[in-house]
Structure formats: C-alpha cells, structure tokens
User: What shape does this take?
Amino acid sequence: MGKRLWLWAPLALFAFFAGLAGYMLTQDKDEFVESEMIGQPLPDFALPAAFDGLPGASKADFAGSPKLLNIWASWCLPCIAEAPQLEALKAQGVEIIGIAIRDRPADVANFLGRYGNPYSRIGSDRISEVQLAIGSSGVPETFVIDAKGVIRYQHIGDIRESDVPKLLAELEKAQ
Amino acid sequence: MTAEIGLAALWLAAALAVLQMVSGAFALKAAPGEVNALAMHARPAAVVQAFLAVLAFAMLLYAFATTDLSLKLVASNSHSMKPLIYKLTGTWGNHEGSMLLWVGVLALSGGLLAGFEKRLPERTMGATLAVQGFVALGFYAFLLLASNPFERLPVPAPEGSGLNPLLQDIGLAIHPPTLYAGYVGLSVAFSLAMGALLTREVNPAFARVLRPWVLGAWVLLTLGITAGSYWAYYELGWGGWWFWDPVENASLMPWLAATALMHSVSVLAARDALRTWTIMLGVLAFSMSMLGTFLVRSGVLTSVHAFAVDPERGAFILGLLGLYIGGAFTIFALRAGAVAEGKRFAAVSREGALVFNNVMLSAILAIVLLGTLYPLLTEAFDVRVSVGPPYFNPASAIFAIPMLLVMAVGPLLRWRSDKPARLQFELALIAALVIGVIALVSFFGQFPLLPLLGLGLAAALAVAALLPLRGRSLKRVPVATWGMVIAHFGIAVALFGMACEGAFSKERLAAVVPGGTEQIGDFAVTLEGVTPVAGPNWTAIEARLAVRQNGGAPVILTPQARNFWSPPQSTSESALLTKWNGQLYAVIGQQAEDGRWQIRVWWKPFVTFIWYGGILVALGGLLSIAGRVSVDVRRRKATAQGDQRRADLDALGAAAPVPAE
Assistant: This one.
C-alpha cells in the first residue's frame, strides 16, 4: 500500500501547482513595477529649456500646488497619442511640466506645433539623467508631484482617455 | 493567398491528428501479436501531418520574408527596414510564430517516429502515436482557436511596428528553435513512455527506441541553454552568465529532468532495471517543458526576458498542462504498480551510482522548481518576493556537490555489484585532487566557498572523466563510451569556468574623462572618445576603448548604448576582448554632469570555459547518438544478411546453418 500511495504523489503535487497557477491567472496582475520613488521627494535638478518658446524646468518649479510631470520625446509615437489627453488635463486647470528626453529644439518645436502645447515649462534631458533619477525607464511617463515636491503617483505609458479621471483624482489627493 | 494555404494546412493537420489519435487507440484493442485493422491509419496520418505542419510554417516564414503587412502578426512584429535575417528570425520571435514552430517540430518528429521506427510492438507503437496525436491536437487547438498566426488585418498596415530590440540578435536565430526542438523531443519521449505504460511493455527494447529521442532532445537542450547563457551574458550587459531568471529556469528544469531520464534509460536498456523510474522521468521531463512554456507565455511570473504575455492564453496552456500532465500522472498512479519490477542491483554498483545521481538531479530540479514558483505562491498572499542567487546557489550546491563526486566514481563501477576496495587507486586519486586543489588555491588568497569547492571538484572530475579509458586500447573503445567520457569532461570544463568566474573575477566601475585610463588586472583601459553612431533601426553612443595588456599593442573595444525606435527601447551592447584565459567585458554607461563617462569593465578569467564545456557536453551527447545508431544499423544489417543467406540456402535446398551469435 505504501508503494501505491507513493505513485499518487506526483499527481498530488501537480494538482497543487495547477490550482495555484489557475488562481493566480484569475488575479489582476499588477503589470508595472512601481517606482521606489513614490513617496520620495523629487531629486534636485535644473534642466535647460528644450526650445526657445518655453523656460526650462527645475525642482523649484513644482512648489506651490500639485502638478503633473510628463516625460516625453518628440520621437516617441505614443506621445502623439497622449497629446489630446494632456490638452484635456490642461483645460481642467492642471499645470503640466514636461521633460523632453534626448531631443533637439527644432524637433520639440515642430512636435508642439503639430500636436499642441499643454506644457508650462519643458526641460531638456539630453542623456536621460533626470529621467533615470526619478525612476522612469521609458517614454511617455507621467508623475503626480505635490506642492512640497514629493512624487505621489506614477503613470507608465501613454495617458488614455480613461486614465484622465484617475490622474485628476490623484492630483486632488495630493492637495 | 499564402497565409490562407498555411491556415488550411494547419486545419488539415489538426484533422489528421484526430485520425492518428483514434486509429492509434484501436491498436490497443488488438490481441497480443495481432494487428487491429483500424490501427493502420495512425502512421500515414502522422507522416502527412508532418508535411502539412511544416508547410504552414514555411508559409509564415515567407510572409515574414516579404513583410506581408496585411498579416496582423507581421505588422505587429516586423518592419520593412529590418535586415532580412532578422525578418526571418522574427517569424518565431513572437508568441504565435513560436507556437507554430513548436507545432511544426512536434509534427515533424511525430512523422519521423511513425515513418522510421519499426522496432516496437505494434500495440505500443499505436498507443504511442495515439498519445502523440492527442498532444499535437491540443497545440493545434491552441494555435487555431487562441493564437492564429495567419490572421489578416482588415486594412493592411502602412508599416510594421518592429521587434523587441533585445531580441534583435543572431542569438535569437538559433536559441529558441534549439530549445523548442529539445522540448519537442521530450514530447516524443513522453508519448513513448505513455505508450509503454499503457501496454506495460517497459523493457530494454523499449528503452533502445526511447534512447535516441532522449539523447537528441538532451543535446538540443544543452546547446540551447549554453547559447541562451552566452546571449544573456553579452546582450544584457550585466556581466553575469546566469541570472536564475524564470525563463532561464524554464529551460534548465527540462534539462535536469532529461539528464536524469537519459541515464535512467541507459540503465533500462543495459540492465532492465529502473522501469517505473524511467516512465516517471519521461512524464516529468515533458511536464517541465510544458511548465516552462506556460511560465514564459502566461506572464504569471515577471522576467527580464520581455515576452508579450496574455493571461487567457496562459489559461489555455494551463488547461493543456492539466489535461496531459494530470492525465499522465493519473495513468501513472493507476498503472505503474502493474509494471513488473525490473532487475535488482546492489547499492555499490554502476546502477546504484546512477540512481543516486538521478535522485540528486531530481532534488536540484525540485530546488529550482520551488525557487521559480515561490514568488507565485507568495503573490497569492499579496507578498512580492524575488528569489535569486542567494537561494539558488547554496541550495542547489548541497545536492550538486555529492552528485559531482559520485559522477566522478560512477563510470568506474561495475554493473550490478562492485566493491569499493577494487577502486582504491582511483578513489585516492579523486580525493587527493579535490583536497589538493582546494588547499593550493586557499594558499593564494581568500575565496568564496562555492567557487573554491568548484575548482577542486572540476579538477577531480576532469581527471576522473578520463579514467574509464585507462588500460584500454583507445581504438577499440565504443563511440558511445567516448560520448560519455567527453560529456563528463565537458561538465568539468564548464564547472572550472564557473568557479574561476566566481572566484577570480575583477570588476571596475569608473567615471572617466575622454583620454583617461583605468587599470584592471593586467589591462590598462583608455577611453579614447565617445561618438554617436547609427544603425539600420537604432542610434547609439559608442565608446572607443583602447585596451593594452601589460603595456602591449592596443586593442580597440567599442561598447555601445543603443537606442532603438519602433518600439523605442534602449539596450547596452557590451564589447568583449577574448583571450585564451578569459574575457575582458566592457560596458558604457551614462555621462555625468562634468563630462565624464561611466565605464564598467570586468576581467573574467576562464569564463569562456563555461560555454566551451557546454559545447563539449553536447558533443558527447552527439557521439553517444552516433555510436548507438551505428550499432543499431549494423545489427539490423547483420540480421538482414543472415535472413538473406538463410533464404538463399533454403532456395538451394540445403540445410540452414545455425547462426553464430
């Protein structure tokens, strides 16, 4: 009998695994690794202007009220897709400070000319230095920064229409 | 049009899989020694199916080669500006294409088995083909219902959207297909094991049929893992050669099971022992292949290897896994008790050593499996953990160290029963080498424990691996024995590389101004300059490093930080300087505010031996296959000649002589 029971052991182990894996498949997967920087103050930075039309960006510019920090680039296709949503946020009275990654002034101006300019300031990050310092690995990404300069929320990827209320709520929470 | 031909071929192949399954099952209804009339369709069904599945894959290959942007798969994974070679490799660099490749290889090996294997009893063969058809059917269903590679777009896309740049590499051309072919070889082993279990024909003849498939799969897995390790080493730019990443583990686990299976099959073929154990490992090896596919494709685990994942497809694969593996283990539990026990043997014997090492391999497999699935388990309770080298290295070493020692001694033992006293010289030599090398190395400095043990074991194993050749005429040693000797020696070589990398690597991370020099080991590395460069679909900054060994002539290394567009992603291209005794590994990082560049350089002594060892191990496997097959062919020819002579003598009316054995 002992030997017979041993023969069932692989099946029992497998059933346990299958049950666990099945359960995990039904769980909503948190697709993004949250930045360690959530709850941390912004690192100190001062970036030069990305083109002639707007001033550059620095940490001090986030003082006063909650703002959005949008990391983007003129060469990034999803950034075109998210441009209307940024315009919508701006229309709701949200101040958006941009950081353009590895970009050229002429391209930035061209992009803003074609797809609209929702930004109050744009800093030029030619070597992704600030981008990496705030825990972002791609474009576009958007951060909610409160009045004290603390990172409160991170949105990875382009902002879809359905993401706008969530961002507004996070800005509200950051008051 | 070609896409429609491919799709039609797939549907037809699926229909033939049903025929193969049903017809094969009828073979079981035949009385022993007879053939059921309905069972005769299984073999042709498998052969035609192989042609159809290969045709479907060829059609997809054509669509990628010509960048047919009306296909959804091509539009979302390729790009007209990609070099042709990467267009072709892009065929299987995505979910649907890789599953089609899997199915194609599966059908091809089913066809080969059905077409050429005549040694098994028809009942076992029928049952095997039925199982093979059943397995294939599940994957056809998966392809056709949940991941159709031939789906057309309503409107052709103007341009494709690229390929993961990390995977845009010649390594990708070889690595996944090799692993897949290995996995599929294990599926044939699985079908054969189930066939033999259903007919209770688990015997040496069955083992001889099983062996080439297991060996072949094992060689391919060995090569696949070796190539994958080297790919991760130079492409990820982190300086490591094994990260215990879920995707890497997914390829390691079937290899461990296949290694155990291969040795177990040899015992069954030579000594008619370990019957149940062989069947069990046959099921286990394929389970691990499917589990690997599930883990990689479902996205339940996070990995550095970015695959497109989809929980629904994960559910489908999990369903297949439950059906095949759950079913197989159920049949195993019900049937294995009825398989007659094999021959017995003493604890100290060749079989004893093989069983011990099979248990050790299984234990390592359990360690890796647990470590890989543990994050899944804790995540069920909302705890995110990452299991890494601090767990895997010591936990697997606990079992790997005794295994390597027994591996040194095992091939020297006799079958059935042996006395340790007979091997006094060999045992003393092995012990002296282990202790001597460890003492010698410790004398020169403080090194971590595991690499130190690894060096001692590598030296002992390298010598012990050659001992089976001692006192024999090298010309008369069978090819298969050469295979074993070379494979075991290859393990020693790889172990030596791993231990050296662990013990003696030097690392230097420095911020350098252009023109500045850093010293690492014997090498002086000068940053001559940093320039932007552009490729077909990327731009990069490239550092020009002049490397001088002991003040000699400079060698130029050009590590790059690349930025791809479509999709935008940045990668780090390492630059390697290979010497006979190691590699210099250089990566360029960010530029600091003051204009200095981060340069990261490693000197890794003998690191290349890891992969040389892997290639030797695979070569040993190939020799073993060649040896076994040539013996089989000679035996078959001799039998045929004997039959011919007897027939001739019969025709002449003379009395047939008794054939000499």
About this structure: Strands of chain A lie at 46-47, 57-58, 67-72, 96-101, 119-125, 141-145, 151-156. Chain A has five helices and seven strands. The two ends of chain A are 69 Å apart (CA to CA).
